[in-house]
Each structure stands twice: as C-alpha cells, then as structure tokens.
Design goal:
single chain, about 30% helix
Length: about 250
Amino acid sequence: MAETQSAARRITVRRARRIEELEQVSQLQARIWGAAEVAAPSSLLKAISEAGGVVLLAREGPSAVGFAFGFLGRDHQGRLYHRSHAAGVLPELRDAGVGRSLKLAQRRWARAQGLDRMVWTFDPSQLRNAHFNLHRLGAVARRHHPDYYGRRTDDLNQGRPTDRLVVEWFLNPVLAGRLRARRRLGGLAIPVPPGLLQAGPPPLADLHRLRRQLRRAMGAGMAIVDYDRERGAYVAAELPPGFPPPAE
C-alpha cells in the first residue's frame, strides 16, 4: 500500500508490518481507550497483517497519532468483506483529518483486494462517531446489538452498556450512489435523548431510550442512513432494492 499524506498537519498513513510498528499500534490503542487490557497485542496484530488483514499507522512527523486495523470477514452467503475492528486517534488530533485519512487508506486497501464492503461497529451514543461514519463517510447501519461487548471498565465505555450499531460502508460506486440519493430524500427522524447531547456521563435512562428507538425503526425494516447533527437526530429509511443482506 502506498503511503498517504494529509497536507494540513503533515500526517502520513502507511501499513504497519514491523513488530516495532505493531507495538506502537497496541500502545496507542491502550492510551486512547485508557486501559491496556482492551488493546490488541502486537502478536495478534502481526497475525492479522500476515493473514489477509491490514494494520495502518498514522504519524505526525515521528510521532504515532492514530491507527486502524481489520481482517477478512465472510457473510452468511459466503461473500468476503473487510471487517474493520478498531480505529482510534489521539484526542488532540481528532479534528485534524487523521481519522478520515485512515479510513480512506483502509478503503483503498480493501478495494485493491477486490472487496466491495467494509463493516465495523460503533457506540450510537457517541455522536461524533455517528456523524463521521454515517454522514461524512456515507456508511449505513442495519443491525443494532445491545451490550455487544458486555460490561467494560475502560475510559471510553466507563462501565455503561456497550450497545453497538453495525455499519456497512459500500465501496461499490453504484451502491454508494444509490445510498447518497436515498439519503437526500430524508426519512424518519429519531431524536437523540437530550442527556446524550450534553457533556458528561450519559444518563442510563437516555441510553436505554435511544436503544429502544433504534431497534424499533430497524424492527420496522428501516436502516439508519444518516445522522443529522443540526437536529441532533438519527435518520431512518428503507433502502432501495439491490443491496445484499447485512453482513453480520
């Protein structure tokens, strides 16, 4: 994979393959999540890199500032896709385009492997991630899992329910275009409970309320196609025909 650069902050993204680079990815994950026990060890990252996956490391000059890694997945119909397991950026660079550079590099790698879909999960109460994944990248969510990882104590999860939306990023230009067209039509607004729009720990009652709202929309056959930051609302709609079943 060719090295990519972000001119604004002189961010470079390249594939991490040497054990020293993989150790940096593991250390970054522990630092960003605030708990070493949730970080993938370099030995696992080495296996992922050598067995059909990819590990990416973003740097600003000599400093490691972000990462992303994933591996091959197979859906229920036998089709391969790229399963992005984790990505993170140091807090002080989260508005510098590092995350986007990592995702675009991941997309290029997946396309070069002949893959047309990337799948990952995110916490629906993390609204910055909702905006990035659904609105900026153009991914779509068709599955919601309550307590996907069980209870965790790292800084990002803080012992609260680990609900996750499974998002799919369709890399095929035709399907991506259909999604853009569908998104422009709007859909059912799902307002985010007020407690999740404020700073500080999210109220448990609001987390459960958002869970019910998302699952109700999906139970009615709709997908989550966007996050409207101005209204503080997810947008649900039926997808146009021609999309494969959910990967997971």
